[in-house]
Amino acid sequence: MATLSRWYGRLLDALLLLASLLLLTMTLLIGADVLLRNVGLGGLAPSNELSEDIIYLVTLLAAPGLLRQGQHIRVDILLRVLPDTIGWLLEWVGDILGMICCLYFVWYGTRVAAASFESGALSIKTLIMPEWWLLAPMPVAFVLLGVEFLFRMRRLALAERRPRDDAVSAA
What does pTM read for this prediction? Predict the structure, then answer.
């Protein structure tokens, strides 16, 4: 299981790198658009649309890795003032609820992407592309998040019965 976790961590690291490269691409795209508009060359017509799509993809690509590293948003003040065992149990509640949400979004996202694919729906803005291209990454990202919740639960089961120390907002 430790080997599988390491390989999975490497996959998530690669996705974080890809998200970073997309963010860099978006920054360069916006910069080029502003520069071209200011020198009177009209700008890059699809830059706004591509930026929107990149923000969406960056969020989906980065979320599993950030969850693994404990760099997600987390409100843990209550966990820090409760007895350790209760805080540990609430960690379980959070992970189980997170897993349930992931399963729902995998189910829903797959249904929506499949319906879009079957209907041949198009996203028509500056660029014209099949709508399912934008919808398909969502269920994949939530599968990855769900897998990370399983690894989190395993780590929690093997750890001391107290709240996690990752992503602590108060010392």
Answer: 0.88
